[in-house]
Amino acid sequence: MTPSYVALLESGEFEDRVRHLESMLADCTVCPHECRVDRRSAVGICATGSNPVVASCTSHFGEEPVISGHHGSGTVFFANCNLRCVFCQNHEISQRPHHYHDTAITTDELADVFLDLQRQGCHNINWVSPSHQVPQLVRSLHRAACRGLRLPVVYNSNGFDAVEVLRLLEGVVDIYMPDLKYADSDSGLTCSRVADYPQHARSALEEMFRQVGDTWTKAPDGTLVRGLLWNPQVLLADEPLAGLDEDAAVRCFDLLLQQVVKGDLTIPGVNCTPLVAAGKVIDIVPLFHREIEQTMLNLIVQFSNTISGPVCIASFCLLVGGPDTEICVDPGGNFTSPGKTHLVDITVVPEDFIVF
Fold first, then answer.
1. Which residues contact 269 (CB under 8 A, 6 or more apart)?
2. Residue 150, Cβ neighbours under 10 Å: how many?
3. Taking residues 189-209, what's their average pLDDT?
4. DSSP state of 41
C-alpha cells in the first residue's frame, strides 16, 4: 500500500501543508502549551528551535509486533519534549535539553535519515515524541518523499497534541500511536507538569480516530500500514475516555481490546504506570481488572520499600491476572507468577530526577 502522503505530493498539497505548519513556528502554537514564541530566534517550554533535534535513529525491534515486524521499525527519537513526566524512561533524551544544545540538524539531513532507514529495510518511519517538532518533521518528510521515500509514518506521541496540527497531518500520517496518560487533570499536573492533559489528549485521540478509524490495514507480512494503535498508559479515573464522542469512545476501546486479543500489542492485559516516591504510591488505577488494584498497590509498595530514597517505577505491565492470581516480587524487582517468568518491566529513575 502506498503511503497517503504520496497523493498529497502528487497533487501539490503537501507543500501547502508544510508551509502552513512552518508558519505556526513564528508565534508557536505547535502543541497545546501555545508558548507563542518565535522559534526561529527563541525557544519555549520544549527548548527546541526551528530545526529538528534528533536524539537517535535506529531499526527498532522493541515496538508492538505489528510495528516492528521482522525488519524493524525505522525509529527516530526526537530530543526534548513538551511534557515533564516524572516517570519518563527516556528522561535523558526528553528532559535534558542542555545535552542537545547546538545539535540541531537541517531538514535535508533528517530526510537523509528517513531514506537511510528505508534502505535498511525498515517497515515504517516511526516518529517518537514528535509533537513539538511537527513542522520540521513534515518538511523533512516532504523532501524525502520527493527523493523516493515510500514508507508509512508512525506518529508515536505522548497524546499532548494540538488538534489543529493533527488536522494538517491528515493524509500525511497513516499510523497513529498515541499514549493516553491521564484521565485526571490533577494527576497530569503532578506527574507531567501540565494542568489540562486529559482534555487535550482526548481531543487528539478523537481527531486521530476521525482520520484513520478503527479499521487496520496490514501489509502481506502482517505489519500495520494504516490505523490507530493507542496505549492507555496511565488511567487515573473511572472513565478515561469521558468527554469523547460516545461512538468514538466505544469503538476506540473495542479497537484496543481487539489488539489485546490478537496479540498485536506488546502488553496483552492491564497497562498503567504508577508513580512511587519514598515508598508512597501517588497514583495508580488499573485499566480492566479493578478488583486486583489492592494486590498491585501492595506489590509496588513492597518493591519501593526495598529502595532508599525516591524512585519511579515505569512500565508496570500486568500480563495476566484476576482476583486470585498469585504474584510475587523477586529480588531483582520483577513481578512473577507461576508459569510466567517476567510479568513486569521496571525502570528506576535516578533520585535526582524526581522533583516535586
1. 260, 288, 317, 318, 319, 320, 321
2. 12
3. 86
4. T
Strands 73-78 and 125-128: parallel
276-300 pLDDT, tens per residue?
Answer: 322 323 233 333 333 333 444 444 4
Report how far residue 96's alpha carbon sits from residue 92's, in angstroms, rounded to the nearest whole number: 6
For the chain, the 3-state helix, strand and coil shares in percent, each to the nearest 5, are 35, 15, 50
pLDDT at position 252, please?
A: 54
Is residue 223 scored above 60 in pLDDT?
yes
Sequence-distant (6+) residues with CB within 8 A of 13 are 171
One-letter identity of residue 156? N
Of 52, 32, 35, 55, which Cα lies nearest the Cα of 44? Answer: 35
> How far apart (Å, rounded) are the C-alpha atoms in residues 273 and 283?
9
**Residue 27, SS3?**
helix
pLDDT, position 168: 98
Tell me the three state secondary structure of residue 57.
strand
5-258 to CATH, choices 3.20.20, 3.60.21, 2.70.170, 3.10.490: 3.20.20
> Rounded to 5 degrees, what are φ and ψ at 70?
-95, -20
Length of the chain: 356
Average pLDDT of the residues in 112-133: 98
In contact, 199 and 208? CB cutoff 8 Å: no
- The model's pTM is 0.72
Cα–Cα dist 24/87, whole Å = 30
Q: What is the mean pLDDT of the chain?
A: 74
Q: What is the CA radius of gyration of the chain?
A: 20
DSSP classification of residue 308: S
Residue 116 CA: distances (Å) to CA of 3, 61, 122, 144, 186: 17, 17, 9, 10, 43
* Alpha-carbon distances of 223 from 72, 202, 206, 218, rounded to whole Å: 10, 26, 24, 5
In the chain, what are the domain boundaries? 5-258, 271-353
Pairing type for strands 54-60 and 73-78 reads antiparallel
